[in-house]
């Protein structure tokens, strides 16, 4: 394995881990349901994407080629994370989940 590939894999793993950590912290620290929903769906998608890209580089440099697993993980993640976040937000609006007082945006029913 080349030195450049090792550095690229290391950087992508660190970036992916950082984004995933930021998403997890956002889930724990943000004030209401809607903002808590935003943190993990955006940050962890980028984080897992960087980790999967590092996996692609690693296995490509070993001569195994790009596996179908990495492509499927990326496709399902990109398709399901925004859709599930949208469904959760719509369900919360239907149930009239309240936002914090200092939230700038308003839901439809408020």
Short note summarizing the structure:
75% of the residues lie in helices and 0% in strands.
Topology diagram in text:
Elements: H1 3-29, H2 33-61, H3 68-94
Helix pairs in contact: 1-2, 2-3
Which features would summarize this protein structure in a list?
3 helices; 110 residues; 75% helix; elongated; mainly alpha
Would you mind describing this structure in some detail?
With 110 residues, this protein is an all-alpha fold. Helix content is 75%, strand content 0%. It has helices at 3-29, 33-61, 68-94. The longest helix is centred in the middle third of the chain and has 29 residues, at 33-61. The chain is elongated. The mean pLDDT is 84.
Report the structural category: mainly alpha
List the total number of helices: 3
Give me the Rg, rounded: 18 Å
Query: How many β-strands, per DSSP?
Result: 0
Distance between the termini: 57 Å
Which range does the strand content fall in?
A: under 5%
Q: Quick one: biggest sheet?
A: none
Average pLDDT metric: 84
Helix content: over 70%
Helices and strands, in N-to-C order? Answer: HHH
User: How would you sum up the global shape?
Assistant: elongated
Low-confidence stretches: none
């Amino acid at each position: 394995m080349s030195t450049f590939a090792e550095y690229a894999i290391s950087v992508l793993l660190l970036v992916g881990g950082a984004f995933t950590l930021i998403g997890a912290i956002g889930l724990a620290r943000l004030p209401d349901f809607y903002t808590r929903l935003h943190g993990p769906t955006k940050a962890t998608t980028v984080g897992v994407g960087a980790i999967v890209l590092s996996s692609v580089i690693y296995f490509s440099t070993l001569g195994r080629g790009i596996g179908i697993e990495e492509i499927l993980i990326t496709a399902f993640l990109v398709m399901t994370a925004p859709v599930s976040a949208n469904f959760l937000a719509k369900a919360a609006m239907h149930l009239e989940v309240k936002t914090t007082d200092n939230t700038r945006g308003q839901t439809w029913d408020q």
